Amino acid sequence: MNTATRTTATLALLLAALPAFAGEAAGSQQPIAVQMYTLRDAGSLDQQLKIVHDAGVSAVETVGTQNVSAAELKQRLDQYSIKAISSHVQLADLRGDLDGVVAFNRAIGNTTLVVPYLDKKDRPTDAAGWTALGQELGRMSTQLRAKGMRLAYHNHDFELVDFDGKTGLELLFAAAGPDLQTELDLAWVARAGYDPAVMLGKFQGRVFAVHAKDNAPKGQAENEGGFAAVGQGTLDWRAILPAAAGAGVQWYIVEHDQPRDPAKVIQTGADYLRTHLTAPLPARAQR
């Protein structure tokens, strides 16, 4: 084989391989992450991140500091080629040490902070209370924006109590102003009696992420809090995923509150999202 022939053959092989490489690159860029709370009982931080890596996911949402220094957390994330796309930070920590929280997250490369839960003492009991909390979070969002960070709020079901036609969550966001983002937990939305696809539409343009998890059929998985892996429960993902895209969702964060097998839950959820974020759902959503 002469030089010209060899060159032509090599070029042909490279061109033939391009679709595979392109597909791999596209897959690696899918907006799928894992909430580290799902893995809290899955061994050491190293073991937890290995589970994420082995599931083919390259992004996580951390829980506070993960009980390590910023330097160690960054080193572990880099070791597994994982980036932190957000962090759950308790409201008390944001109120008491905003600069410290910012410094830690800046050091690990994260720019999104999420209020994950309200202790009972912090939960408003009327519309005025939800409005006041929204105003506080709005001010905090403005402070964080000046520091190159953004703030989001993650719901459970207690925010979805109705006050004369508006939920507490809607009142909070109406008072907060445009800087505050939402991280909608779709399973909790459904548990509160609302349609996740409809709720996504109410927050169009403000949905930083969704917590992608499922609810098991009533009476099942009671030893797992009644939750299920994404695509294995009762949520209508055929309607939810187009609604999420229309709302501008940036990240789909796989989570399960009480998994018996965290690695399996993450692999199942990630696989489901990888399939259905790249191809339209069939007439009947897969389960």
Tell me what the structure shows.
With 287 residues, the protein is an alpha/beta fold. Helices cover 46% and strands 16% of the residues. The protein contains 11 helices and 12 strands. The chain has an 8-stranded parallel barrel with strand order 1-2-3-4-5-8-9-12. Strands 6-7 form a two-stranded antiparallel ribbon. A two-stranded antiparallel ribbon has the order 10-11. Helix 3 packs parallel to helix 5.
The best one-word shape is globular
- Return Rg in Å: 21 Å
Listing every helix as H and every strand as E from the N terminus to the C terminus, the arrangement reads HEHEHEHHEHEEEHEHHEEEHEH
Name the structural class: alpha/beta
Order of strands, main sheet, comes to 1-2-3-4-5-8-9-12
Question: Which strand-content bin applies to the residues?
Answer: 15-25%
Total DSSP E strands = 12
Major sheet: size, sense and barrel closure?
A: 8 strands, parallel, barrel
Low-pLDDT stretches are: 2-28, 283-287
End-to-end CA span: 53 Å
Number of helices: 11
Oligomer: single chain
The helical percent reads 40-55%
Mean pLDDT: 90
